[in-house]
Design goal:
Layout lengths: L2 H13 L4 H12 L12 H16 L18 H8 L14 H11 L10 E2 H6 L2 H9 L9 E2 L2 E4 L14 H6 L6 H9 L3 H5 L10 E4 L2 H7 L3 E5 L10 E5 L4 E3 L6 E3 L1
Parallel strand pairs: 1-2
Antiparallel strand pairs: 3-4, 5-6, 7-8
Helix pairs in contact: 1-2, 1-3, 2-9, 3-9
Protein name: HNH nuclease domain-containing protein
Organism: Pholiota conissans
Length: 262
């Protein structure tokens, strides 16, 4: 990473830390990147290693490189990806009795049988409703462009594996950050929370790590014909751009009437 990228990554990590505990730990790691305690400057090599660890350690577990994020799959077993990659024993790898079907039932109940992004009812739930309730749902719809029901699935928050040995760092950086050997360690260090405390014995199949979602928002976004053009208006700042599209777009937030137009 370039020094500018390292600075932006660590600044992002510091600013968007979920709590003060994670922010304090990150501050400690940055300060400890000094090769000489009396030196006011940190080692660029170690800072780059720390930024690399944040990108490929912290962010990667939430990112799906093979499709839309969050990963939507009704038959997904989030534990298997960790099990294939993390060799160090971890409570995140402990077998759980929670099946994907049980997890889906729990998330549907908590999310009121709706996609958390669109607010639309689960299609199977809608079909099981009495005719009167189906008509009531139709009359309360936000408009003909907003579907009443969508096919939904279980989406995991943490869905990707985190290797026990993250590659791409120098030998000095690997020796410095020996603590970053498991997914749980990285999450606790940068996130400032214990995965075991939040997920409990259900581990990655905990309802706290999943929610009801539909792939429709991703599919609709993939259909957009968008492109960027540099702004040519004299009063705009240099580097400003216009977002252009082939047709008007209306984006409606979940369960409300607010819309934004492009």
């Amino acid at each position: 990473m370039s020094p500018a990228t390292v600075a932006r990554v660590l600044g992002h990590a510091f600013h968007f830390a979920p709590n003060d505990t994670g922010r304090a730990k990150l501050t400690e790691e940055i300060i400890e990147c000094k090769l000489d305690p009396d030196d006011v400057h940190c080692s660029p090599e170690l800072l780059a290693g720390l930024a690399h660890l944040y990108v490929y350690g912290m962010m990667r577990v939430f990112y799906n490189p093979k499709g839309p994020t969050p990963l939507v799959s009704p038959a997904q077993n989030a534990r298997s990806s960790f099990g294939d990659a993390v060799r160090t024993p971890s409570h995140l790898l402990t077998p759980t009795l929670v099946t994907t079907q049980t997890l889906r039932q729990r998330t549907l109940l908590r999310d009121e049988n709706r996609c958390v992004f669109t607010g639309c009812l689960d299609a199977h739930i809608y079909q099981s409703l009495p005719r009167g309730e189906q008509l009531a749902a139709l009359t309360t719809s936000e408009g003909p462009a907003v579907p009443i029901a969508l096919l939904t699935q279980v989406a995991h928050v943490i869905s990707q594996s985190l290797p026990s040995n993250i590659g791409g760092m120098t030998q000095a950086a690997r020796e410095k950050f020996v603590w970053a050997s498991t997914a749980a360690a990285v999450l606790e260090r940068f996130g400032g929370f214990s995965a075991y405390t939040i997920l409990g014995e259900d581990n990655l199949n905990s309802a706290a790590n999943a929610f009801t979602a539909s792939s429709t928002p991703h599919d609709m976004f993939d259909c957009l014909d968008l492109w960027l053009l540099p702004a040519q208006v004299w009063y705009t700042l240099a580097g400003n751009i216009h977002l252009c599209c082939a047709f008007p777009i209306s984006i409606t937030g979940p369960r409300n009437k607010r819309s934004s137009h492009i």
